[in-house]
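Run folding on both entries below.
>entry_1
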Amino acid sequence: MSSQAPAARRWYRLDNAANVYPAVRSKTRPGLFRVSATLNEPVQPDLLQQALGDTLRRIPSFSVRMRSGLFWHYFRHAEDELTIQEDVRNPCMGLSARKDKGFQIRVRYHDRRIALEVFHSVSDGSGTLAFLKTLTARYLWKCGIAIPATHGVLDCDQPAQPAEAADDFDAFAGRSTPRGRREARAYHVSGTRVPHLTLNITTGTLPVGAVKEEARRYGVSITEYLTACYLHILNSIQASEHRRRPLPVKVQVPVNLRRFHPSETLRNFSSYVTPGIDPTHGEYSFEEILSLVHHFMRYEVTDKHLRSRVAANTRTEQHALIRITPLFLKNRLINLGYQLSGPAIYTSVMTNLGMVQVPPEMAEHVATFDFHLGPSYTTNVDCGVLGYRDKLRINFTRVIHEPIVERAFFTFLVRQGIPVKVESNSE
């Protein structure tokens, strides 16, 4: 797999989750997300460039260009160098054939920050975070700081492992019975659209201990607690619009399948669940929503239910008629399916990457980690969550001017007794 190996892999089939993204990618659906690390000292670009080369040799599945075959898109390994770029105010915009040279990732830097933006066909949040941690550790090594290959940091002096580029969806699905996925259209927050190539970001920094204590008080997990808070706020915003017939309010919550299946892959290996409420059934208190989310998540986020959900995707991909359908027709079918069962069926996304763990030697030099979802012109507002040391970072990304969602969300948390420090990239 490594370029050092005589049998280096030169192309990759897209994994099961990855196939949808090139088919639906457009100027308004760039399909990128971002993780970043802020160091204690300014970044030295020349050393970061060297560290990137070493990291891509260690994790070659990130050094790829998209190609189109007769029946499927696929990745072709890129032998040339990916050049780092200076960071920008509005991240996660579409990849540029000229600036990005066809690569499906970009690495940016500014002051003390190292940022990695990834097209979702390449990897999910967990795999991308592993790449960022390895890149950051290698950069610190170039600065003369020894970082051990522990806590998810890979050793760049070792060859790549085939298991790290595996598509594990089939193995996970096994012989599970595919599960029906038809869901009703969901409510979406509306607002004044910002100019193209603009992404408003609002970040709240919270003490992990305070959030954990509040979640423990209700007997739920942090993810369940934050999801319930989000549903409560979104439901309140729709109620304020006084619709004749309100729509369901649902939040898509990605689930890392590595929790349920032994996998070393650094590519996509996640599914999702969509807890929600139907306002036509009546008013919901926060406590009612929290109880519904808690029981929904405990019922849905299980090995058997997730296998069944993944099986629905893998069986579709393996269908004989789908396999022989030319790519241009397949793209149209995927686009149609995406319009019917993509963002249309959920109000927003809340992705929690959990607590970032790094070697103690590395933690001394990294101040914060961050996670941002890219622009969505259907949901208009999405949310990425990530914890590091004693802080929780909640990043809202929106393509509308009005910060009504994040303002109400953070205000609610403060009223719950959780202090929040808020910052934004907008005026």
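>entry_2
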Amino acid sequence: MQKCVPSFFGSNGADEGEVGLIGCGMGYVTFLPDYVGMGNGRGFQTYVHAATIQSATDNFLKATESWLSENGVSTNSQLFITGYSQGGYASMAYHKYLEDNGRKVTAAAHLSGPYSLSGVMRNLILSDQAYLYPAYIPNTALGMQESYGNLYNDLSDIFKPEFIPDIQAYYNGTITLTNLNIRIIQKLNSLFGNGIAKNMLQPAFLDQLQTNPESPINKALSENDIYKWAPKAPTKIYYCMADDQVPFMNSVVANDTMKMLGAADLETRNVNTTANHGACFNPALNATIIFFLSKQQITTTTGDISLADQVMITPNPVMDNAVISYDGIISDCTLFDFQGREIIKQTGFFENQIEMNFSDTKSGVYLVRIITGEGIIIYKKLIKP
């Protein structure tokens, strides 16, 4: 049983569940599905198989929505999607599924994922360069076999015999993916004097991978490329150029293809030029938080909720000056941080709008409180990058 999934949050290796706590703390109802076949799931994990990821995530969303309804929890209609690494692949797969099925997505951010399996990732396997994470190759093969059942009859059809005991041990759950990776690198260096990943593959299988686009493995990789579509929702693709596990060209290829297919609100950005895959997580997540907060709707009012729609903050996010406008009189405009501390306050008689300067305000998320001439209190969220 592989426990490095959100449902085992609190156990060793399952700390990614902390992202859910961050989301909840920022006002989101957050759900984090396990990868199929991990946690208490049956079988071996399907890894980068889009259809099972999509169905499992959709089932979890429907279960979440049912629970919210049954327990009287009110939410708005906004829906945000994000994920990192394998989760970046999963988030892009599910984003596509939702839009293909007519569900509106508020915003999505896909982070450092292997979106181009048949292109970027396949070329990495076939290259003559050493790869520090060769265990992803058997992980993909085992997962695809779980999904399709026709990639091989026996592991020896794909892998040289020296590597099979460790791969079988990983499949049986007696060693982790990290352990498998260490053992494969040691064997590659011992047998071939280098860490070139394709040296673990049988010559006949390697020839199929290189020359036959109709081979089961090449068809499976192509079917699970997840970037050949045009997202409608505002979308960010974040990556780090020094990524040593998932080449940044996955993000570049996805960006170019999606824009060619008509994606109008898409930005792809290198969030840290020198960060490797592990170090890229924090800057990518930070960029996602700022992006989502710019789209998140949090409004409260002591009056008719429709009055809140009359209050606008432009621009938001703000760097220096912003205009707070309202169809009426503003008698008080105060900026609070999320600890409830007053940061800026302006009082007086302002007709229709008030301009405030935030140049000395630290980066963060704030609440702007507007008190109208009628004494109605309205709160709006403001972001300072």
